[in-house]
Predict the structure.
Amino acid sequence: MLTRRFFLRASAVAMAGVGVAPPWLVRAAAQAGTKRKILVAIFQRGAADGLNIVVPFFEKLYYELRPTIAVPAPGKANGVIDLDGRFGLHPALQSLKPLWDGGHLAIVEAVGSPDPTRSHFDAQDFMESGTPGKLSEDGWLNRALPPAGPDVSPLRAIAIGTQLPRTLHGSRAAVAVNNLEQFQVRNQGAGSILERMYATTADAKLMASGKQTFDAVKMIEAIARTPYVPASGAQYQGELGRSLQQIARLIKADVGVEAAFADIGGWDHHSNEAPQLTNLLQQFGNSLAAFARDMGDRMEDVVVVTMSEFGRTVKEDGNNGTDHGHGNVMMVLGGPVRGGTIYGGWPGLEPEQLYERRDLAVTTDFRDVLGELVSDHLGQKSDQVFPGYQRGQSIGLLKT
Amino acid sequence: MRRFGFTLSVSVLLAATLVALGVADGRFEQTLPVDRRIVHVLNRLTFGPQPGDLEQVRRIGIDRWIDLQLHPNRITENPIVERKLEPLGTLQLATWQILEKYPAAPAVLTARPPSAIAFSSLPQQQAIRLVNCSVDERRTMLASLEPDTRRLVLAGAPAQALDGLPADLQQEAAAARTAEQQERQKELRRLMPPLNELLTPDQIRTANTGTPEEKRALFNTFDADKRRLVLRALPLQAFTNLPEVRREAMAASQPQPFVNAELSEQKLYRAIYSNRQLEEVLVDFWMNHFNVFNGKGPDRALLTSFERDAIRPHVFGRFQDLLLATARHPAMLFYLDNWQSQAPREDLPVPPGVRRPGLNENYGRELMELHTLGVDGGYTQDDVMAVARAFTGWTIYDPQKFAEFQFNPAVHDRREKIVLGQTIPAMGGEEDGLRVIEILARHPSTAHFISKKLAQRFVADDPPRSLVDRMAATFTKTDGDLRAVLHTMFSSPEFFSDGAWRVKLKSPLEMVVSAVRALNADVTDTFALAQRIADLGEPLYGKLEPTGYPNTGEAWTNTAGVLGRINVAAALVGGQVPGVKVDLSRFNFKNPAAVAGALLSVAPSPSMLSAVENGVHGKEATPSMLATLVIGSPDFQRR
């Protein structure tokens, strides 16, 4: 088995063959092995139904309000996986149970945004920018990175996909990569001239993207030369699996990843929710579990956090589905996590306990969760990442 | 060096911010010179200039050319369009014909299995007892059934019916389920045998890797039945450069994706070849505004009619007619779930496990947020519910077979509704929805929201307020006459200003089609081209979320985008996109400035030209290299 240090040296040498090894690669090679904290954010687009993901099976009202789509209590056929006698995982999330049992998975209940919008797009923008109620140009995860020092990698912040999500927009360089294997300039001769063209254009936006592109291409070409086999037989599933596998590959290649982003769409289940949610959750759970397995010891430095723009109505709608709601659930996963616990106050499901008498109320601001990860894991000041927001009492998600 | 890069990018960012503030430097007040105006209208009203377009606009005159584009029926259509669309048989079919000819899946996959039929044929009392009663009661009930029936009922019963039953019954259920699945697998194998049961190893090799001629010859040796089975079993890559065989294969193996693939082909052929360019740009704009996702159930097969019957006829018409056409179209009714939305009936007793009729807010919300008022347009959650209630009963008659609009009074909410302060009296029936469409289409927020979105597509990401206000005034004065609103925009000084000049980043569709047009390529198949556009992040008809694709540049300027565009440029010019032939002989012996000028329709930027001139020397300066550099350049990404 190759060591990381060896790999980087080899890459630096290999690249020296085609041109000049970029200084950052040489530096990265020298620094291989130094520990770096990494935060991975996963966005479930479309408003995932938190109440059917982590199920409050102790609530009689849950079953009364969702006669056709409630997940049965533990012990029943297709019942939830009991976590603490009150809450349970949807049965399609079986693969996350070992992480919970091992204390690596924490769950925050009734978490969300103080903003009342039920627009997917506003709510996603607010959550991604980290400024509920007003839109900012840059994203919270971009602001959570320290300013670029001399050793910063062009791959410090990566999003898997064809577009850079708002979460990673901002002044720190961030890269969208759709597919590592194909992240290369096909026409080498044209490549260097185009690089020059983008470096000198008066078009500021394209110049910035161009520079990031060509830097990232060099680094990724070096990584993609070695075929990737996930460790420990990890089995990724679906699109999210494909994304997480690429993130794992980049992290394990020690190219200086500090923040990563992946998303998974298709949660907007206004009708016929149960079978669709089961399918998505299988992909979701299996991919997260595969990521943890593939990363192995490296999970010691990694925290994964999942979020979705808002929850869904407590009561099912007229079509065996649910409409746009408010409070939701977040998962926090990784070596530094104090897992095996449900965090966040439970507001209850009685009509007067619901938000606008229809949705799960929010008892924990999503910025309390993200802020804690920013400060305790990445070591950055959370009030600069979430301007104007005074964090509440510490949740205690991470080991100290 | 690095520090220099950092300060440089900060100052560039500052400059960009100032430009984004727009009016600050008065760029929307500076008029474009005449030669730029011609390029500008071509960049904005078409999918990009093709050779000869500049001269044509100059000859006709800009104002008259715009007027013609606003009245496409006065433009003689390019005969190539008709020729390209002729083989696409589904374009003219009514939805019921499409559904009949191209069913969602073979009958063996959609037919309900005998077990499900057996379970649902039980008398209702028995079915309810089987789901809800104690283990003993269920056992007694099951024992009362004929053995054959019991086996099927056990196989088809939901999980909770089996919960707690003794092992012998559980085993019987499992065995029955397995037997049924095996039977189904066998039937599937008979209907869709794998390739190695159909062909010899040699034939399989030819079918996968032979030349197009070899493949065609091989397929022609089969009778009709075998040919269908073989084509269905082969992967689509086997039909590269055999578009007519690929269509035949896809129609057999994936009937509904095939219908949508024909629609995509149509979209690209029209975008590339139509003389009525503005109409095509607008069809794309409004299809995106009223986005419907081809991955949601039967929508794949409904989109053909949606574009042809609901969008296309109205892009120069009244907004209210367009809005109504989309509201009533089964594609939209299905996509945003309104077809299932019913008056809430808290009073109705329903047996357990049976769903209680109720409201679905999805369409009501997106109708206001995305289609008309805009998210800040002044509506509340109460308005969302009132609108949803008004549209209850707007549904689809038999979505699998006919998929036609139908109003079902039985599920309509008959009570009074208050929408944006206006009362819709009780008992309005189907009229309620029409009232809502009228209220929304005439609302000042809608006039503003639609005007701004059009200005974002045609003028600048952040269009000047003065322009949007004037467009909105035209919208209101003319009761939403879209041609009049476009006319206000195209005759405005802001449209022809320095602030609008080449500030729009091309979307992937615009980038690829404009490259094909600039290269004057001969396109005989658009399948691979559509795949390229999808790889750049804009699969045609494939946007899952109802927002549609971004109308502004921010989303498309990122590393994956830049790299993808550079590679698409090389592939197009290098003839690596099957179905797209590029003849570069007109660039023989031309210098970089001339090639760039021809492909960009304007002189290249000095930085681009110097990179090319310093980078390519002597023999390397082939037409192919130069064209690759131009199409991949920052300059070409703007329109």
